[in-house]
Task: inverse folding
C-alpha cells in the first residue's frame, strides 16, 4: 500500500491502549450476548434465518442464501414481505399505536410529535397519492428533501408500493440531481419549497426546476410546503403535497413483494467522475438493518429515545433513521437543522429535552464539539445517554475519549461502527454489552459477518500487520449491484481479489496484537470529508468544466475537523485571469454549484504545472505532501522534478476561508 493515507487512528495506535469493558449492569441487560459469535460461526445461514424471523413475512423463504450467481446474491429466496408494513403497521397491530415514533424538531424550534398511528395514516395517504399519480411497483422515485417528516413518509410509501426510491441529498446541486434522475429514469421527484439552514430559509425547488428541465422521464414534481417561500410553478407538472396527499384515505392495504424486490438506489462516489447507483433489495437488507440496530445500539423500544444525527440523503439515514430503527419500533428524534443554530448547545438541548438515551453521530461533529469546548455539553443534563455511536470515518482516540468523558459521562459505551453505502448496514463494531471497547478501533466483525485484513496477494496478515480490508463471505444487506452497470459492479468490488472471491471495500486496515481491526482510511482516490465520500475525479471534472481551467488535480489533505479537506491544484488557461483571489473564489463556487457545497475545495492553488510520472499519471502523493505541508518525498519518477518547487512556492498564494 503506497498511497494509503496515514489516518489519525494509525498515529494514535501507539499511544492509546486503554480498554473499557461494559458495566456488569449493562452487560446483564444487553440485547446481545457473547454467545452470538459462536452461534453464527456454528451455522451462519441458520443464524441469519433466525434474524430474519424477527420480521413479518407474508410468505416464508425456501432458501436462506443463493450465491450461485456470485457476486450477485439472493437472500431469503422465495420469501415475500412488505418493508413498510414491518416498519409501521405491525407496531400498530401489536398495540403500540400510541407510542411516539418520531419527535420531530424543526430548526426554528417548531415541533411535531408523530405516533405509530399517525405514521401509519401518513404513509397510507402518501401511498394512495403516489398511486393516484399512476406510479407502479418497480418505478423509480427521486426524493430531494430536507429533514422533514414527509421525507420519511415518502420513503416508506415507496417501500409500501414497491417503488424504488432514490434519495438525493438536499445539499447536492441541480446537476447532481439531474444526473441521478437520468441514470435511474425516475418518474417523480418529491421535494420541498425550501429548507431551514442556519436560521434562514433556503430555497430548494429552483434546483429541481433546473434539473427536471432536462429530464424527460419526470412526469410530476410533488412539493411539500416547508418555508412558505415563493416558488416558480409549472402547471400540470407541479403539485402541492397538501393538495394531493391530505385528501387521500388514510387506509391502504400493503402488498407483499419478493425478498429480492429493489427497495432503493443510493448514489455514492467512486474513483471515476460518475457516481455509482448502489442497489439494495428488501428482505436481506431489512433483516440486517434491523438486526444491527437492535444489537449494536441495544435498543429497548419501550424505554429508549434514539437519535441518529445523519441526513436521510446518506445511507446512515436510510438504515439508521428509517429502516433499522422503525422496524424495531423505535421512539426517535429527527432534527432538521444545523448543530449551532441558534447556538452551539443545540444538540445537548435536544438530548436534555427528549431524554435521548442513544446518540449516533460522526467523528467530524465530535471534533467540532471539541473545538467549541467541553463547557457547552457540561451546561446540560445528559444523564439519559447510555449508548454512543460513531460512523463515517476513523475516529481518533482523542476524540473518542472526549466523547466518552464529556458526552457519555465516562459511562456510556461507544460503538465505532464501520460499514459503507454498499454494505447497507453495520459490519464491524463492538457489541456494547459484550466488547471491552478500545478508543479508535472498530474492533471486530459482528456475529454473522466475516471480515479480514489481507496483503496484496490476498493472504490474511498476522496480528500487528496491515493491509486491505476485505469481506470474505456474502452478507444479507450487501449491494445487489450498480444500477444499470453490472460490469462496473464486478470491476469495482470483485476484481481486486477475484481469485479469492473477496469483496474489496477500498479501505486500508490493520490488526492490533489482540486481532482487533483498526480502519486506516481509503486506499483509492476517494476522499472522506466529514464522513462523506467525494471522489477526486468528480471534483477534477467539475473544475475542468470551468472555462478558465486547463487542468486540475485534487487531493484530500488531513484536516483536524473534517478528517480530510479538499485541496485542488489548477492550471489556468493561457488567456485566463492571473489566478488572483477572484479567480480562486469563482472556482470554489463553481464546484459548489456543480456538485454541492460539501465538495467546495478548502483551498485552490493555481500552479503552472502538475507533477506527473513519465507515463502521465498525476502524482497525488506529492500533491498531498504539499497540501499537508510535509517536506516533499521522492521525486525521481517525476517527468520534471522542478515542478514541485514551483508548486510549493505557490502554496502561500492558495486561498482558504
Ligand atoms: C466509507 C464508506 C457508513 C455510513 C457512512 C459512510 C469510511 C465509515 C467508518 C468507521 C473508519 C469508516 C470508510 C468506508 N468509514 N465508517 N467507523 N471507521 N472508516 O458511508 O459514504 O458509503 O462511506 O466511510 O472509508 O469505506 P459511505
Result:
Amino acid at each position: 500500500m503506497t498511497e494509503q493515507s496515514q489516518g489519525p487512528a494509525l498515529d494514535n495506535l501507539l499511544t492509546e491502549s486503554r480498554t473499557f469493558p461494559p458495566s456488569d449492569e449493562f452487560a446483564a441487560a444487553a440485547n446481545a450476548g457473547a454467545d452470538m459469535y459462536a452461534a453464527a460461526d456454528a451455522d451462519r445461514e441458520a443464524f441469519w434465518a433466525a434474524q430474519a424471523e424477527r420480521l413479518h413475512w407474508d410468505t416464508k423463504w425456501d432458501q436462506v442464501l443463493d450465491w450461485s450467481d456470485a457476486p450477485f446474491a439472493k437472500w431469503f429466496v422465495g420469501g415475500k414481505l412488505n418493508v413498510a408494513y414491518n416498519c409501521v403497521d405491525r407496531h400498530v397491530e401489536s398495540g403500540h399505536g400510541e407510542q411516539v415514533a418520531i419527535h420531530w424538531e424543526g430548526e426554528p424550534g417548531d415541533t411535531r410529535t408523530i405516533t405509530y398511528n399517525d405514521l401509519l395514516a401518513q404513509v397510507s395517504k402518501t401511498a394512495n397519492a403516489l398511486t393516484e399519480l399512476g406510479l407502479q411497483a418497480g418505478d423509480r422515485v427521486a426524493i430531494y428533501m430536507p429533514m422533514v417528516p414527509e421525507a420519511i413518509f415518502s420513503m416508506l410509501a415507496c417501500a409500501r408500493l414497491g417503488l424504488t426510491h432514490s434519495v438525493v441529498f438536499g445539499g447536492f446541486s441541480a446537476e447532481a440531481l439531474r444526473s441521478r434522475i437520468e441514470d435511474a429514469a425516475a418518474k417523480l421527484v418529491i421535494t420541498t419549497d425550501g429548507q431551514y439552514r442556519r436560521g434562514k430559509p433556503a430555497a430548494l425547488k429552483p434546483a429541481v426546476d433546473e434539473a427536471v428541465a432536462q429530464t424527460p422521464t419526470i412526469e410530476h414534481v410533488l412539493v411539500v410546503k416547508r418555508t412558505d417561500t415563493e416558488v416558480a410553478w409549472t402547471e400540470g407538472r407541479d403539485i402541492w403535497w397538501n393538495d394531493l396527499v391530505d385528501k387521500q384515505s388514510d387506509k391502504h392495504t400493503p402488498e407483499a413483494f419478493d425478498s429480492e424486490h429493489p427497495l432503493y438506489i443510493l448514489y455514492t462516489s467512486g474513483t471515476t467522475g460518475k457516481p455509482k447507483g448502489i442497489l439494495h433489495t428488501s428482505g436481506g437488507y431489512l433483516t440486517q438493518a434491523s438486526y444491527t440496530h437492535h444489537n449494536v445500539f441495544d435498543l429497548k423500544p419501550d424505554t429508549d429515545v434514539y437519535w441518529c444525527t445523519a441526513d436521510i440523503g446518506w445511507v446512515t439515514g436510510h438504515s439508521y433513521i428509517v429502516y433499522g430503527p422503525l422496524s424495531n419500533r423505535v421512539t426517535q428524534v429527527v432534527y432538521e437543522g444545523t448543530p449551532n443554530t441558534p447556538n452551539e448547545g443545540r444538540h445537548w438541548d435536544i438530548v436534555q429535552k427528549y431524554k435521548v438515551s442513544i446518540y449516533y453521530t460522526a467523528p467530524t461533529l465530535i471534533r467540532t464539539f471539541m473545538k467549541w469546548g467541553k463547557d457547552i455539553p457540561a451546561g446540560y443534563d445528559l444523564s439519559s445517554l447510555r449508548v454512543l455511536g460513531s460512523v463515517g470515518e476513523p475516529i481518533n482516540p482523542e476524540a473518542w475519549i472526549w466523547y466518552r468523558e464529556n458526552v457519555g459521562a465516562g459511562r456510556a459505551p461507544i460503538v465505532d461502527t464501520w460499514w459503507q453505502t454498499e454494505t447497507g448496514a453495520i459490519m464491524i463494531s463492538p457489541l456494547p454489552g459484550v466488547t471491552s471497547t478500545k478508543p479508535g478501533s472498530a474492533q471486530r466483525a459482528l456475529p454473522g459477518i466475516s471480515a479480514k485484513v489481507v496483503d496484496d496477494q490476498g493472504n490474511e496478515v498476522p496480528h500487528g500487520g496491515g493491509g486491505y480490508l476485505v469481506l470474505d463471505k456474502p452478507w444479507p444487506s450487501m449491494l445487489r449491484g450498480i444500477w444499470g452497470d453490472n460490469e462496473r459492479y464486478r470491476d469495482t468490488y470483485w476484481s481486486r481479489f477475484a481469485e479469492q472471491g473477496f469483496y474489496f471495500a477500498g479501505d486500508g486496515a490493520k490488526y492490533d496484537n489482540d486481532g482487533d481491526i483498526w480502519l486506516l482510511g481509503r486506499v483509492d482516490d476517494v476522499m472522506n470529508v466529514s464522513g462523506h465520500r467525494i471522489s477526486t475525479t468528480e471534483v477534477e471534472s467539475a473544475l475542468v468544466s470551468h472555462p478558465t481551467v486547463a487542468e486540475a488535480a485534487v487531493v484530500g489533505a488531513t484536516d483536524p475537523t473534517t478528517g480530510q479537506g479538499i485541496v485542488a491544484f489548477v492550471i489556468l488557461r493561457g488567456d485566463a485571469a492571473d489566478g488572483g483571489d477572484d479567480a480562486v473564489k469563482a472556482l470554489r463556487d463553481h464546484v459548489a454549484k456543480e456538485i454541492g457545497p460539501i465538495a467546495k475545495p478548502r483551498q485552490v492553488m493555481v500552479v503552472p504545472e502538475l507533477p506527473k510520472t513519465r507515463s502521465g499519471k498525476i502524482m497525488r502523493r506529492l500533491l498531498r505532501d504539499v497540501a499537508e505541508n510535509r517536506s516533499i518525498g521522492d521525486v525521481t519518477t517525476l517527468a520534471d522534478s522542478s515542478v514541485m518547487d514551483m508548486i510549493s512556492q505557490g502554496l502561500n498564494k492558495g486561498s482558504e476561508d
Remarks:
- The first strand starts at residue 63 and ends at 66.
- The CA atoms of residues 605 and 654 lie 5 Å apart.
- The chain has 21 helices and 30 strands.
- The first helix runs from residue 8 to 13.
